[in-house]
Amino acid sequence: MDSAENLIAELERLGITVWAEADRLRYKAPQGSLTPELKQRLTDNKDRLLTLLSGHLVHEAFFFGPRNQRIFANYHPAAGGGGAVLTVICPPLFSDYMRTHLALRELAMALADRGQHVLRLDYRGTGDSFGDLSEVAISDWVEDITLAVREGREISGSRVVRLLGVRAGALLACKSVGASSDVQRLVLWDPVPDGASYLQVLRGIQVALCERNLYLSRAERSDAMHEYAGYTLSERMVEEFRLLDGSAYSSVPKNTLHVVSTSSKTGFPVPGVPQDVAPFRCDWDTAADELIVPGPVLERLIACLTRS
C-alpha cells in the first residue's frame, strides 16, 4: 500500500484536491487527471487517508462573497496551528492563470508549511468562481481582492496581511490596496507595466494562435481576431484595462513593494522599488501553454513573503 502522505503529495502535484467529510473521502480533480489506477489507490488507502485528513486540515476549498456572485477560494492553514501572517495570492489572468496554477498551489503549501495562512482566489468570471467573463469588469476583480483579504482575516485570525500578485494580478492587487495600511507587504512576480501594454501582449498571442491553426475558415479567422489570447473580452473590460496605468503601482507606499522578475530586461514603472531577478524562461508574451513550476522563482517568492 502507498504511504498516505506520499499519495496526497502526488495528488497535489496533479492538481487533485482530496479531503475528509465525516466518514467519506471527497476529491476534486481536473478532467482526465483521476485515472482508474489512481481511483483504485484512493479506495485501497481510504481508511488511512481519512485518518490523516481528519486530524490535519491541509487545504479547504470554499465560496465567499455576494450571494449571486460567489468567489471560489482555497485556504491553506498554517502548519501546527497559530500563525500571525496571512498571504493572499492574486493569480494572473487567462492563459497565465492556467500555466501558473500548479506553481501557485505549491507556493501556497510551502508558505503554510512555514507557518503562514494562505488564501488563493479565483476572480469572478474565472476559474471556479461564479459569473461569466463577458459580464464582469476590472473593478469587480479589484473588489474580489478586497473581499478575499477580509475573508482571510476572519478565517485565520491574522492581523498581518501580505499579497502576492502575479502578472496582471500584480496590477489588480496594487489597485485594490492603493494607499491603504491594511496590507503590510506586496510581492509582485513579473508584474505587467500597465493594462494597455498587457492588451497588446494578449493581441499578439491571439495572432500567433490564429497563424498556428491552419484549419480556420476565413470567417472563423476574422471572428477569432477579435479575441485576446483566446478569450472574448467585453468592450467595458477592454476600456478598463486601457485605463489601468502605472499609477496603480505608484499609489502604493514604496516601502511595501518588492518585485521578483524572471528577466533583468523587465522594467518596473516605479523607480527605487527593491527587485530580485530569478532567471527563468516563462515566455509570457508567446502562445506557450505548458505548465511552469519555476523553482528559483518560487524560492525567491517564499523568501520575500516570509522575511520579517
Protein described:
The mean pLDDT is 89. The longest helix has 20 residues, at 94-113. Strand 5 (85-90), helix 4 (94-113) and strand 6 form a beta-alpha-beta unit. The protein is α/β, with parallel strands linked by helices. It has 2 domains: 4-55, Arc Repressor Mutant, subunit A; 60-306, Alpha/Beta hydrolase fold, catalytic domain (Rossmann fold). The chain has an 8-stranded mixed β-sheet with strand order 3-4-6-5-7-8-9-10, with helices on both faces. It has a two-stranded antiparallel sheet with strand order 1-2. It has 11 helices and 10 strands.
Summed up:
With 308 residues, the chain is of the alpha/beta class. Helix content is 42%, strand content 17%.
Number of domains as seen in the coordinates: 2
Could you name the CATH homologous superfamily of the largest domain?
A: Alpha/Beta hydrolase fold, catalytic domain
CATH domain class of the largest domain:
Alpha Beta
What percentage of the residues does DSSP assign to strands (E)? 15-25%
The appropriate CATH architecture of the largest domain is: 3-Layer(aba) Sandwich
SS elements, strand count: 10
Instruction: Work out the helix count.
Output: 11
**Largest sheet data:** 8 strands, mixed
Which structural category fits the helices and strands?
Answer: alpha/beta
Whole-number mean pLDDT: 89
Using the alpha-carbon principal axes, give the shape.
globular
CATH T-level fold name of the largest domain: Rossmann fold
Secondary-structure element order, N to C? HEEHHEEEHEHEHEHHHHEEH
Task: Kindly provide the radius of gyration, computed on alpha-carbon positions and rounded to a whole number of angstroms.
Answer: 20 Å
Unreliable parts: none
Q: Termini, distance in Å?
A: 42 Å
Helix content: 40-55%
